[in-house]
Amino acid sequence: MLEYLIPSLATLLQPQTLLIMLGGTVMGLIFGALPGLSATMGVAVMLPITFALEPGTGLAMLVAIYIGGISGGLIPAMLLRMPGTASSVATTFDGFPLAQKGQAAKALGTGILGSFIGGVLGLAALMFLAPIVARVALRFGPFEYFSLTLFALSLVSILSRGAMVKGLLAALLGLTFASVGAAPLGGTQRLTFGLIELFGGFGIVPFMVGLFAISQMIRDVQQRATPIDVKLDIRGFGVTLKEVLDNIWTILRSALIGLGIGILPGIGGAASNLVSYAAAKQASKEPEKFGTGTVEGIWASETANNASIGGALIPLMTLGIPGDGVTAVLLGGFIIHGLQPGPLLFRTNPEIVSGIYMSYLIVLFMMLFLMFGAMRIFPRILQLPRHYLLPALFVMTVIGSFAFNNRLFDAWVMLGFGIAGYLLERFNFSLSPLVLGFVLGPIVEQNLRRSLMFSEGDLMPFLTHPFSAGFLVLTVASVLFGIYTESKKRRSSSQHTPPHP
Amino acid sequence: MNNHTSVHTDRWVGVAFALLGAALFWSSMGMRSGAYLGDPGPAFFPRVISILIILFAIILIFRARESNQDSQAGPVSDDASNSGGLRRFILTSVAALLYIPVISLIGFVFATSVYLITAIWILGPRKWTHAPVIIGFAVLFTLSLAFALTRWLGVAPPQGILS
Question: What pTM was estimated for this model as a whole?
Answer without folding.
Answer: 0.80
